Every structure is written in structure tokens, then in C-alpha cells.
């Protein structure tokens, strides 16, 4: 399994490489956000560790760019107490976060959990493209081309946003808890903050609902979770 580690702290980078290679991982390293994007595309790692504060473009911007072409698990490394970094990390498509200074044993446990569950969920099957089109009112989802249209106009979704919408549309009327969505859509046993589901739901509504503040299809069952309105 290949892990991409990007951090401008050379000492930390060296230490992480040493520890991860001792665990049997192949490790690729970078020191700024632009390198993170380039290496993610070129090396196609199985997981990315991405520091927030870096030169060039920061880790959050890098994560957004990576999400344009890859659904690889991303763990954001944040400064202690920077809750906004965690929230923004979810906004930008990160899957989990670890706060600096961190226990390397905890980090390795999170990495193993992510990789194990991603593999167990099918790995490359998460990119499956069944020949099917799902439609509901003004929303049309082309599973083959991974394309979504709102009133006939294509809408740009991240890979995870598409997977989440597909999961909901394939199960109209079924209420999914946040935990269930994290397990089934993200494909691993989530170790961090469940707010990542709320962030993705809000962004989906902004992109596919005609009136995001009063959604017609992506609905909330208060105290339980989310569901797609059945016709």
C-alpha cells in the first residue's frame, strides 16, 4: 500500500516516513500543496496525509484539487485547537483529521482502519459505473458517466458527493444515520467528526436542489439522519 505524506516540516516528514516504512508501507513525500496535487495524480497513492499549513497552496486547497480527480482517503494534519481547520477540511473533501502534536500509534491505527475498510468496501469498486440513470423530478443522475443534471444542466460534484447522492437516490424513502452513511459511502469505520456528512449534504443541496434552504428531495429526519424523498 502506498501512502503520500505532504508536510513542510522536514523533521516531521522524516519521522513519519521512517515509522510508516517500518509498518511495510511504500511512502512518497512532498513539502508543499502543489507537490501534493502533482504527486497524488502521478503516484495514485492508497492514502494521503496532508498538512494544512504549507507554502504554495495550503493543504485545504490541495485537498479540493485532489478531489477533482481522486476519491483517495485523505487525513488532514491540523494544529492543536484549530477547530476551523477541521471543519474546513471536511468542506474541502477530507475524510479524517489528526491534531498536532499527535501520537504516532494513533495515526497508524487510523491509517490502518481507513485502508482496511476501504479495501473491505470494495476498493476500486467504489468507482463502479453501472449502466443506469436515476431520475427524480428535476434531478437526473447518470451512473455510467458519473454525471448529474439539474433541470437538464450538468452540475459539478466531487466524487464523494456523487457517491452520497447515488446512495440516497438508490434507496428512496430510507433514512440513513450519519454513522451508516459514513460506513457505506466513505467505506471505513470513521474515527473523527460526523459533521463531514452534514457538510456534504449541505453542499449537495446547494448544487442539486432548486431551493437549497427548502429542499425538495434531500431531506432530514430530525434526530435520525437523511433520506431521499420517494416519488
Describe this structure in words.
Strands 2-1-3-4-5 form a five-stranded parallel beta sheet, sandwiched between helices. The protein has a four-stranded antiparallel beta sheet with strand order 6-7-8-9, covered by helices on one side. Strands 10-11 form a two-stranded antiparallel sheet. Helix 3 (59-67) links the parallel strand 3 (47-51) and strand 4. The protein is of the alpha/beta class. It contains eight helices and eleven strands. It folds into two domains: 2-120, Rossmann fold (3-Layer(aba) Sandwich), CATH 3.40.50; 127-228, Winged helix-like DNA-binding domain superfamily/Winged helix DNA-binding domain (Arc Repressor Mutant, subunit A), CATH 1.10.10.
Count the DSSP helices.
Answer: 8
Q: Give the distance, in angstroms, between the N- and C-terminal Cα atoms.
A: 43 Å
CATH superfamily of the largest domain: Response regulator
Count of folded domains: 2
Describe, in short, the structure shown.
With 231 residues, this protein is an alpha/beta fold. Helix content is 41%, strand content 20%.
SSE order and pairing:
Blueprint: E1 2-6, H1 10-22, E2 26-30, H2 33-43, E3 47-51, H3 59-67, E4 74-78, H4 83-91, E5 96-99, H5 104-120, E6 133-136, E7 139-142, E8 147-150, E9 153-155, H6 159-170, H7 178-186, H8 195-208, E10 218-221, E11 225-228
Parallel strand pairs: 1-2, 1-3, 3-4, 4-5
Antiparallel strand pairs: 6-7, 7-8, 8-9, 10-11
Helix pairs in contact: 2-3, 6-7, 6-8
Keywords for this structure?
231 residues, alpha/beta, Rossmann fold, Arc Repressor Mutant, subunit A, 2 domains, five-stranded parallel β-sheet, four-stranded antiparallel β-sheet, 11 strands, 41% helix
